[in-house]
Specification:
The protein is of the alpha+beta class. It has one helix at 117-148, and strands spanning 31-40, 43-52, 55-65, 78-84, 89-94, 106-110. The protein is built from 1 helix and 6 strands, in the order ββββββα.
Length: 150
């Protein structure tokens, strides 16, 4: 006899167990390109894009200051803000002058519900232009926020 001899008994799924989530791991890239962009005196954006078959499969847009910054000549490549696609999410980090990182990062797009690797890669490729525009239009605000927690 089974769990319940009653023919109306249904073996229901255990809803207390969370469904498995997709974990995105970028595959080996055909090409990786790193480009620095000077935003202002001592503030720079380092862009890294990894491509596979002409599509961006991984990227990092990292705003940082260096020793050319007029207020912080002693600083060497200190992170200000970063947008990347680690941990199965496209998200933005905020850093502060005292060395701390905001414990809450801002999710731009999750990859955890992607059905497969190709779908996640497509999302990353589609998000890149939006993320680039986001950091280029807000880099001064990120720098002010970085400086406010010194």
């Amino acid at each position: 006899m089974g769990l319940n001899p009653n023919p109306k008994h249904r073996n229901l799924a255990d809803m207390s167990t969370p469904p498995p989530t997709f974990i995105y791991t970028p595959q080996e890239a055909d090409t990786t390109v790193t480009t620095p962009i000077d935003l202002s005196d001592g503030c720079e954006l380092s862009m890294r894009e990894s491509y596979f078959q002409g599509r961006i499969i991984d990227f990092s847009l990292n705003e940082h200051i260096n020793h050319h910054h007029p207020r912080y000549p002693y600083v060497q490549n200190h992170d200000v803000a970063r947008i990347d696609c680690c941990h199965s999410e496209v998200h933005r980090h905020q850093f502060y002058a005292n060395g701390d990182e905001d414990p809450k990062y801002y999710v731009i797009r999750s990859l955890k519900n992607s059905p497969d690797q190709q779908s996640a890669e497509k999302i990353i490729d589609e998000c890149y232009d939006h993320c680039y525009a986001l950091i280029m239009s807000n880099w001064e605000a990120y720098l002010e926020r970085w400086d406010s927690w010194s």
